[in-house]
Design goal:
binds 2'-deoxycytidine-5'-monophosphate; Rossmann fold
């Protein structure tokens, strides 16, 4: 079983930036599980399936191929063979993915895809339920939080950087709504896993948070060492869900760029 680092926490807490940088420094695979929920939302949006029809949603997703690949710096998100990484970060997809994520059948399907990624090598996986449900036996579990103002500022900056107008109060409302849904759902709610290291990123530099996570990883007795990921061969997700090439390795140590989460 490959060494797994999970990073869970609410939206825009800095999980993606942290997880990418940690994966890059350790040369582990980077697994953005939110991207799978977002790609599934994109598919349903394009198919015109109603969100109040769980059976149609299940059928649609059963016929959908989803996969992740690439390096932490250039992550690919495969939906039926097409890389949709550039299309899944809109507010509409955020909202729809959060609603989809409350549906048990959707979670089962996506959790299965996530677990299969462990066969590809040591990984850093970020999301909401990685330490609690997807990889409850992960070697290192992190819960990264930040106050809602810090998170809203981060998300607004990121949206603006992509040319999407984002008034701060609107972004904050949207985050608060998604938080409530993610924390309040009965299936795999957002919460710290037992034994998780709690990190508050409010007002802190991303670099310091990354260093803190790296320290926790490096002292773990099972830590295989940086570059351990090189021994794994790229592959496809099992269960017939593979669509793109397997994840690649980071080209070398170095900071990851700031990204959404
Ligand atoms: O991390 P993100 O914002 O890209 O995630 C999009 C949505 O998917 C988010 O509202 C919560 C959901 N999600 C989830 O429920 N479980 C995960 N492991 C990852 C994401």
């Amino acid at each position: 079983m490959s060494f797994v680092v999970t990073i869970d926490g609410p939206a825009a807490a800095g999980k993606s930036t942290t997880a990418r940088a940690v994966a890059s420094r350790l040369e582990f695979l980077y697994v953005d599980t939110g991207a799978l929920y977002r790609a599934a939302a994109l598919k349903l949006q394009a198919s015109g399936v109603a969100l109040d029809d769980p059976r149609a949603i299940e059928e649609c997703l059963a016929a959908t191929r989803l996969d992740l690949s690439g390096s932490p710096e250039h992550a690919h998100v495969w939906l039926d063979g097409a890389d949709v990484a550039g299309e899944i970060r809109t507010p509409a997809v955020s909202e729809m993915s959060s609603r989809l994520a409350a549906m048990p059948a959707v979670r089962r399907r996506l959790q299965e895809i996530q677990r299969a990624l462990r066969d590809r090598g040591p990984l850093v996986a970020e999301g909401r339920d990685l330490g609690t449900v997807v990889f409850p036996d992960a070697e290192v579990k992190i819960f990264l939080d930040a106050d809602v103002e810090t998170r809203a500022r981060r998300r607004a900056r990121e949206l603006e950087g992509r040319g999407i107008a984002a008034p701060l109060d609107q972004v904050q409302d949207e985050l608060a709504r998604r938080d409530e849904r993610d924390r309040g759902r009965s299936d795999s709610p957002l919460r710290p896993a037992p034994g998780a290291t709690m990190i508050d990123g409010s007002g802190r530099d991303a670099e310091h948070v990354v260093d803190e996570v790296l320290q926790v990883v490096r002292v773990h007795p099972g830590f295989p060492g940086a570059r351990a990921g090189r021994v794994a061969h790229p592959g496809r997700a099992s269960g017939g869900s593979g669509a793109g090439p397997g994840p690649g390795r980071a080209p070398g140590p170095g900071p990851a760029s700031t990204t959404s989460d």
